[in-house]
Structures are given as structure tokens and as C-alpha cells.
């Protein structure tokens, strides 16, 4: 089955209204040298060229980074985006403006930053690369917001923090996580307060938005890892939120300029960022910013070179699901050009499996490899770790009568049962009357697949998964032909590594000192995620966008 069609055909992807194009590039394997003691910045710079030329792994130049691999995996971007960042110094301008702050990018983080700055009384301009802003999910999260209190939710924040730190392998900045826990409710309450619908009954908990309206547990206890019941559905179509937010911004006094990408930062002799250069239809324009510049240009999904440099090949998904076509790493590159530090490599990518239901999964060897009921990011990572980074999910023709066994709050909230049944039994699936025939069509070892299905059925009958601890009462037998198998890749939603920041969203240099006048928010900022994005902390990213924008307004407006 075509990897781009596995969920798109049936309209069942979690962000199914988005589409992405795939561009492929090969990656070569090279050797590694040993580690050395830390050196000063000047020594590092002097050694970069020699180090890269020797084929060493350690280098301070991302373009020279190499990834030794066991199995070569194609590295593809979501498409070929138009890069706005300009490295050569720009000196000719068709116009020059004096303002307080310029926010670069109008995704959720940029929206919040521009709104907060304007409400703080600052002369605020928001520049956006595309013809409209971007908002890809009508959700937000948090802990103990007014919405959560409305639904009677309480959370063990110590357990939440523990899960967060485990997910980032303690590579993330714990101070940033604690700040998120302490301040997110204030920011989300502020943000939601701007919408015209203030009926909290309409702000459903995502896990309770399907067939489990009374689900009030703080996390899903079924999976091995806790999937937190923190996500809230905003009562608006996702495709309308960009324009809704634009209206809110303009009402607050923000000047919005579309089709006007930020290209380069301006510094004075002390290193302070004093402005930003943008490109309009007339040419380059310079903004002198009395308060600061905010980088909120998203990730770099549409920049193949940055993906190859920053993400290990095994982490880059087989397909992308994003409509943020302007995400080419412009903010990252602008920050790096003025001395910013960024997350070390490999940087994280937000991943989803293409199929969100916990159907039985096997790899190309015909073997199971994971407990199928896990938070989406964890399941996607398990898929990425398989030979050639794909798997097959398998169901039988009795799925419609069996699906209730896997119908849970976290599996029901993205669509009705009929949609998921249709996706797994669609004409795009490989169909066969026996498991042996199915194995032949999938080109997997027949004896292995037959043994896997046999053991699955035995454990389903016993009500216990002895191999991967999948909940035994959720195991649907595979015994009613015909059988259906669908090839599945992980979908990439966005990159999740960026410039290092502090709790005030000030961009940090390599000595971890703030670069005066420069701020970053959302996917352009870093310091929190390592190897993966923690989907089990549901809606953490959108809440982080909101909090960071809100924080920047407080800092600049003080």
C-alpha cells in the first residue's frame, strides 16, 4: 500500500486535513573518532575545518555532521520549501521602520507572542512568510486551567514532571518543565479568554470528546506509559483558527504583514539584537525594534539539508503530515548567525503512527515488536526502529464486531468506529484468505507470520499478552478470513529542536547567556525535547506555544 494513502484515503489521520509531499535524499555511513575534553569557542572554531576534513564525527559545523548507521534509511523532507534566511549582510532597503517588537511567524506561538506584546502596550508588528498563518490542531492543554477545573480534573504534577524528564532522558532543561507546570494554566486561561465562545461546556477534554464523555482519570492507565488526560478541544474547526486569531490580533492593535518573511537579524556593536530585515514584494525592509525580536518561524520540515544535519536518519519519518510549508528553519538560522546555541544533535521530531488504533502489528520479519496500545509518539518510535522503518497492521473481516475490545478514551477521540474499520479494511489493504497467503503477498516469512498470529490468538484466548504486556482483554483474535494487512510508516508532524532559551524565552548564546533583544518561541525554541516529542504529555506543544508567547509579552511589557 502506498505510504501516503494509508490513512488519507479513509480520512482518519489525527491531522488528516493536512498533506505533505515527500522528497528523498541518501545518507552515507562514515566513521567515528573518540571524544576529547571540552575546548573554548576560539579553539573549536579553529579546529572545525580540520576536524571535518578528517572524517571525524565531532564537528561544530552542522553541514559536516555525519551519521554512522547500521542500515541506510532514506532522509526525506516534507517538500522543498523556499528558504528566507540570508547569510550575506543586507545593506540596501526600500523602507525602514521604528517599532517596539517584531514577531516573526504566525503559528500558535507567534500568535500568542504578538497578542501578548500588543496587550502590553507595545507597537507590535507580526510578519508571516506565507499568505496566511498556520494552525494545525484545534487543541490546547495544560494542568489545572479553568477548563480542567470545570471538568473536575486534578493532576499529580510530580508524576507529570517525572514522565516529562524520562521522555527527554533528562537531556531537557528541568527548569523549563517546572516553569511550564507552574505557569501554563495562567497562560491558557488568558488565551482562551479571547475567544467569542466562553461556554466552558464546549471546551471538551479530548479523551472525553468521543464515546467516553465522563472519563475523568488524570491519565490512561491501560498503556505501559501514562498518557495524560490534559488535552482540550477548542470549539472551532482547526482550519479556521488562523483567521480567528488574526482577527483577535488585529483588534488588539497588531500590524500583520503576510508574504513578508524575516530574513536576517540586525545587531549593534555590543551584540544586542536591535532589529530584523524582512522581504516584501518591493524588496528588503528594515525594522528597528526598541524592545526586541521574536523568532517564531516554526521548525524545518521543509529543509532537507537541516534534517540531514540535525536528525539521525532513523528518526526521520517515511512520510510527513504537515501543511506548514514555510517551515524551513529560517528562525533557527537567523539565531545561529548571531551566536545563539541550539539543541545538540540528534534533534527530536514529532511523530505519529499512520494508524492510531492498537491493531496487531508485525515488522517485515513477520514478528510483533511492541505493545500496540501506547501513546502515539512511542508507537511511532517503535515503528521507526524496525528494519526499513515500517510495519504492517493486521485485522480480520470480523473487525467491526471486535473493535469494541480496543475502544478506549484515547482511541475513540479522533473519529467513530466505522472510520477506523474502513481504514483497516479498505481497498488499499493487502487482502488474503489465509495467513500463509497474506505473508506471501506481504513478502514476509510465512512461518514467522503464521507463528506470530497463532501465538497472538492463544494469548488473546488466555487474556494475557506474555510477550509485550499489551492489555490482554484488548486482544482481538485474528481468525475470521479474509485478513487485511496495511503497510504503515511513522508520520512526521514537525521538528521539535531549536534555539536554547531561558524561562523568559530569551535566546541563549554558547555560554548560556541571554542575547539581548532576541527571543524565541514554539518550535523555533529548544531545551526541552530529546530524541522524541512526548505525545504522552498530551498537547504539551500547543500549550508551550501559548505559554511562551504569553511570557514574552510579560517580559517585554514590563
| SS-based class | alpha/beta
Q: What is the rounded Rg?
A: 24 Å
- The count of helical stretches stands at 15
Spatial shape: globular
End-to-end C-alpha gap: 56 Å
**Total number of beta strands:** 21
Largest sheet: 8 strands, mixed
What is the strand content? 15-25%
Name the poorly predicted regions: 1-54
Query: Level of helix content?
Result: 25-40%
Overall pLDDT? 90
Short summary:
The protein is an alpha/beta fold. It has helices spanning 41-53, 108-119, 146-150, 157-167, 174-192, 238-252, 304-310, 330-337, 376-384, 399-402, 409-412, 417-424, 435-442, 446-462, 540-557, and strands at 23-25, 75-77, 95-104, 124-127, 139-140, 219-220, 227-228, 232-233, 255-257, 262-267, 273-280, 283-295, 319-320, 349-353, 360-362, 391-396, 430-432, 483-488, 490-495, 506-508, 514-520.
Amino acid at each position: 500500500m502506498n505510504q501516503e494513502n494509508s490513512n488519507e484515503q479513509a480520512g482518519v489521520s489525527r491531522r488528516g486535513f493536512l498533506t505533505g509531499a515527500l522528497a528523498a535524499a541518501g545518507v552515507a555511513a562514515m566513521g567515528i573518532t573518540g571524544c576529547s575534553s571540552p575546548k573554548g569557542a576560539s579553539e573549536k572554531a579553529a579546529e572545525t575545518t580540520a576536524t571535518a576534513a578528517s572524517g571525524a564525527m565531532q564537528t561544530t559545523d552542522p553541514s559536516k555532521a555525519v551519521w554512522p548507521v547500521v542500515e541506510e534509511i532514506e532522509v526525506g523532507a516534507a517538500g522543498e520549501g523556499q528558504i528566507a534566511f540570508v547569510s550575506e549582510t543586507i545593506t540596501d532597503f526600500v523602507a525602514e521602520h521604528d517599532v517596539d517588537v517584531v514577531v516573526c511567524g504566525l503559528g500558535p506561538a507567534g500568535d500568542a507572542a504578538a497578542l501578548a506584546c500588543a496587550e502590553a502596550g507595545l507597537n507590535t508588528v507580526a510578519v508571516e512568510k506565507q499568505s496566511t498563518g498556520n494552525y494545525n490542531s484545534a487543541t490546547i492543554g495544560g494542568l489545572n486551567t479553568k477548563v480542567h477545573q470545570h471538568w473536575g480534573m486534578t493532576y499529580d504534577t510530580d508524576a507529570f514532571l517525572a514522565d516529562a524528564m524520562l521522555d527527554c532522558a533528562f537531556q531537557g532543561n528541568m527548569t523549563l518543565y517546572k516553569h511550564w507546570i507552574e505557569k501554563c494554566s495562567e497562560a491558557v486561561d488568558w488565551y482562551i479568554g479571547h475567544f467569542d465562545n466562553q461556554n466552558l461546556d464546549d471546551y471538551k477534554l479530548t479523551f472525553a470528546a468521543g464515546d467516553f464523555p465522563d472519563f475523568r482519570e488524570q491519565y490512561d492507565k491501560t498503556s505501559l506509559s501514562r498518557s495524560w488526560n490534559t488535552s482540550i478541544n477548542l470549539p472551532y474547526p482547526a482550519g479556521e483558527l488562523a483567521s480567528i486569531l488574526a482577527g483577535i490580533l488585529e483588534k488588539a492593535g497588531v500590524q500583520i504583514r503576510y508574504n513578508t518573511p524575516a530574513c536576517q537579524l540586525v545587531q549593534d556593536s555590543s551584540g544586542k539584537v536591535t532589529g530584523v530585515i524582512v522581504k516584501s514584494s518591493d524588496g528588503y525592509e528594515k525594522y528597528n525594534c526598541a524592545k526586541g525580536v521574536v523568532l517564531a518561524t516554526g521548525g524545518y520540515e521543509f529543509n532537507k539539508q537541516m534534517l540531514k544535519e540535525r536528525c539521525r536518519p532513523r528518526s526521520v519519518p517515511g512520510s510527513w503530515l504537515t501543511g506548514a510549508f514555510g517551515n524551513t528553519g529560517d528562525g533557527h538560522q537567523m539565531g545561529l548567525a548571531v551566536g545563539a546555541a541550539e539543541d545538540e544533535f540528534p534533534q527530536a521530531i514529532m511523530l505519529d503512527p499512520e494508524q492510531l488504533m492498537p491493531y496487531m502489528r508485525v515488522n517485515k520479519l513477520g514478528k510483533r515488536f511492541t505493545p500496540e496500545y501506547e501513546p502515539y509518539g512511542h508507537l511511532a518510535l517503535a515503528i521507526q526502529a524496525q528494519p526499513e522503518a515500517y510495519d504492517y497492521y493486521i485485522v480480520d473481516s470480523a473487525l467491526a464486531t471486535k473493535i469494541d475490545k480496543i475502544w478506549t478514551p484515547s482511541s475513540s477521540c479522533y473519529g467513530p468506529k466505522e472510520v477506523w474499520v474502513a481504514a483497516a479494511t479498505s481497498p488499499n489493504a493487502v487482502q488474503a484468505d489465509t495467513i500463509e497467503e497474506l505473508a506471501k503477498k506481504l513478502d514476509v516469512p510465512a512461518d514467522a507470520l503464521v507463528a506470530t498470529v497463532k501465538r497472538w490468538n492463544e494469548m488473546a484466548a488466555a487474556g494475557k499478552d506474555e510477550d509485550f504486556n499489551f492489555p490482554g482483554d484488548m486482544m482481538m483474535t485474528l481468525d475470521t478470513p479474509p485478513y487485511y494487512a496495511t503497510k504503515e510508516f511513522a508520520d512526521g508532524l514537525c521538528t521539535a529542536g531549536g534555539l536554547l532559551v531561558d524561562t523568559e524565552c530569551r535566546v541563549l548564546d554558547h555560554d548560556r547567556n541571554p542575547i539581548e533583544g532576541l527571543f524565541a518561541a514554539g518550535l523555533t525554541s529548544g531545551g526541552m525535547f530529546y530524541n522524541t516529542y512526548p505525545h504522552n504529555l498530551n498537547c504539551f506543544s500547543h500549550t508551550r506555544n501559548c505559554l511562551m508567547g504569553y511570557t514574552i509579552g510579560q517580559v517585554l511589557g514590563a
